[in-house]
Design goal:
The structure is a single chain. This protein is mainly α. It has a single domain, classed as Arp2/3 complex 21 kDa subunit ARPC3 (Orthogonal Bundle), CATH 1.10.1760.20. Helices cover 76% and strands 2% of the residues. It has 10 helices and 2 strands, in the order H-H-H-H-E-E-H-H-H-H-H-H. Strands 1-2 form a two-stranded antiparallel sheet. Strand 1 and strand 2 form a beta hairpin. The N and C termini lie far apart (44 Å). Keywords: Membrane, Transmembrane, Transmembrane helix. GO terms for molecular function: transmembrane transporter activity. This is ECF transporter S component. It comes from Lentilactobacillus parafarraginis F0439.
């Protein structure tokens, strides 16, 4: 019942975020390619982003081994399918919305740092896949390694001034969570049919 209530709240929040963003702002954020899309394709892209954002929040409630959850897998998937800017949006808002619904258990400043790190992680992840190929082994390996590096060691270094030595207690859980979320993302993307991957509203294949 509690999770159902959280999911309903998250869907309302997701809808509010995307309904209130002006179309010109979206075009500036996500680039000229997005701006020249048909209105139908723009709507499909925003709808998929909203669905993935809701899945980030729902995934935060699917926990294994205590704090390990599947909250970033939809953001990684969005970065591959929709591009780096959409991935960054999913990384930032996905973490902040899910953390906000939980009452910011690590305090707001820490969650803001994590949210920014998640956004940077998804942006780099999506950019590498855009440059090296979404389906190439080189693109997958480079993006996954950089995604892990930003999401675990670099993020922990950024959190060290606020958390001191306590930050290292998160190394193992974060490592497990990041690897599992990357595996889920890659398995789902590999399983998608080519007609879905080549849809005109998605980031073009390399």
């Amino acid at each position: 019942m509690f999770i159902e209530c959280q999911d309903q709240d998250s869907l309302k929040m997701v809808a509010l975020i995307f309904v209130t963003i002006d179309n010109k702002v979206i075009n500036k954020l996500f680039g000229r390619n997005f701006a020249i899309m048909t209105q139908s394709n723009q709507l499909k892209r925003i709808t998929l982003t909203a669905v993935l954002l809701a899945l980030c929040v729902i995934g935060a409630n699917v926990k294994i081994m205590g704090s390990v959850a599947f909250d970033s897998a939809p953001a990684f998937l969005g970065a591959v399918m929709l591009g780096p800017w959409f991935g960054a949006t999913l990384g930032i808002f996905g973490h902040l919305v899910s953390a906000g619904l939980a009452g910011f258990p690590l305090t707001l400043p820490i969650h803001l740092i994590i949210g920014v790190a998640m956004g940077a992680c998804m942006f780099v992840f999506g950019l590498v896949r855009q440059w090296l190929g979404k389906d190439t082994l080189k693109g997958v390996l480079c993006a996954d390694v950089l995604g892990y590096a930003i999401n675990v060691p670099i993020e922990l270094v950024l959190l060290y001034p606020l958390m001191k030595q306590a930050v290292w207690a998160f190394f193992v859980p974060l490592t497990i969570a990041t690897i599992l979320n990357l595996i889920v993302c890659e398995v789902i993307y590999a399983a998608l049919p080519h007609r879905v991957k080549d849809a005109p509203f998605l980031m073009p294949q390399k």
